[in-house]
């Protein structure tokens, strides 16, 4: 023992006590997915507080010289049967009564109980010191080591602080309209029952407007249920903000919705507001489910394996390399699905997994903050098979039961924290759009692969847009980079129109037994809608120096190795209310896009002159701005968007109308310069601009090295006040806006073009035949991208496999017609 005491004394200066703000990684290894529950436990450095599994702790000791580690091991306690458990290892029978997590009445978070063993280990000889052993050591050693041990164990781990441990979806804020709500003295009195929508006679999901007493139906859901949007339409016509859900009124309160604030709210004057229309809260009884109860029902359904996919089928669990499940960290199924698919792509495997030893050897002192290390760690975790093992069933001590598909899997906490850091959405535990996350991750890969191989090139392709002025018949060609093909859904091309109409008729008649009928859309109709010319009605033609009509045709200037197709299921109605199209599309297993290859300028075809639109003129001042459609700008401002954002939307869509401008706004709302003043080409020293001569040459060179032209790099730096990270984010989120800048044919770099003296004119792209085969797809269940659940299907060795978070099973009926994102790979000829 004396020898151990002497060793501890010699390393005492390296043992720290965690202070507020220190990041303590005591739940997950920085270089693998080992945890205290893993074989060998977790070793936490008592100086840096980084955690390491048994296979990496010696490496950290050798690199850092640190010798003292806190060794934490946990073993799972067997669960005791109680009244709340079904006895089969499934969720408890007790149903949640609150839309909440981790609090009384909320969803059961199934907290596992563990027995914990903690001791100090001294490397390289792995001498062990327990708390009892410290009692016989010198006071200074005992005090410092005990404080460090206690501090590490008491500190919130990084993963713990990143998770939402308690969440209450019922916490609502007082509406800003409640205190001074104006109510019309129109003599309206509402009976205590027997309500109907005043427009369509619907008898359920009814809302009474608290300003004028109108009783109208609620929103229509994606599956056709709910209402007919009449309460919402009434708000849009009148601006009357608050409505109460009839049937939820009790002496304790009611559901109140603020259309202006777009949220469920509190109304402290609700009794007074109801009395105005003859409703006495104290005598009312609940007859309809509250919005909270409806959301609980949806969340419970979403969590059921059979309901999500392939219901009624017994699915065979799969284990092994490339068949590793991922734990849901709280609405992280969008991330799980995307990363499962990406690590099926050879480019990502070779970049991050094949080189994992080299990546780990070159990792910085804090690998938890290194993008390449964390991506490699995730890829190896998914592909190695080390974590693809059946999860232990605490209710089955002998392990006699059949595996249910759940795996130990991996919990990508460090990865999620790193890729989401600083992002307004991906840093939260809210549900997100898988397509937006895919583009966000590709953006990060681009930023972190400025030298060396870049796996995102597998998805990168060039799009050629050909605009023909109908008056002069002259054409304009532009090219832009893209990563995803967005496939429109022409609802008017449904092949089961009669069935849809009959289902709609029965629903309007209140037939609750009517089955939901899904629109059947031919894939060929979607492709035809993608390739057909688009009519531009307010196109400014440089040939005739006036606005005229033009046609725009989009084609592939190159075909990527891997093609991603997004079905545009999420769209906006005529009232700009988001909705999801419930459709079935016969997506094919093989695809030939050869006929959609761009051909470039045709023989004898004349190009539109490169002349800018005329500037606005006043008697005294020349304003360097194109003519903007004031009516479109006004309409956008009335929707609540910032003026400068509206001006940019109209400018960058070329005055082509409210629809195009609105789509631009929806695609750029997360841009850091969304509300910044419009920066025009050729303007210098204007508000929000940076003169060319003050731009950092180092920043310019960095962006140019990524494959963009100097002009493109200059524009990005000007738009972001010469801040490199913001400029890189800006350039990848404004690829459409850069389409007017020159991109060489095939995306060749300057070294490959004549002379080789100019910087690369555009990102490098691969090209090849346009023939593809389907290898994966991601499906979404729910009413919008902001809620619901994602799963993915991946074809492995000619067998479809379903990945549903920690469940990995052989797929019996892959629902290829209901996907959201489809992934194809090129077929070698």
Automatic annotation (TrEMBL):
Binding-site list for substrate: 207, 219-222, 257, 259, 262
Catalytic reaction annotation: Thiol-dependent hydrolysis of ester, thioester, amide, peptide and isopeptide bonds formed by the C-terminal Gly of ubiquitin (a 76-residue protein attached to proteins as an intracellular targeting signal)
Domain UBP-type: 173-281
Binding site for Zn(2+): 197, 200, 217, 230
EC number: 3.4.19.12
CDD domains: Peptidase_C19B, UBA1_UBP5_like, UBA2_UBP5
SMART domains: UBA (SM00165), ZnF_UBP (SM00290)
GO molecular function: cysteine-type deubiquitinase activity; zinc ion binding
Active site: 333 (nucleophile), 789 (proton acceptor)
Biased composition (Low complexity): 744-753
Record-linked Gene3D superfamilies: Cysteine proteinases, DNA helicase RuvA subunit, C-terminal domain, Zinc/RING finger domain, C3HC4 (zinc finger)
Annotated USP domain residues: 324-827
Domain UBA: 627-668, 694-734
Zinc-finger is among the record's keywords: yes
Family statement drawn from the similarity comment of this UniProt entry: Belongs to the peptidase C19 family.
PANTHER family: UBIQUITIN CARBOXYL-TERMINAL HYDROLASE, UBIQUITIN CARBOXYL-TERMINAL HYDROLASE 14
The protein, known as: Ubiquitin carboxyl-terminal hydrolase
Source organism per UniProt: Amphiprion percula
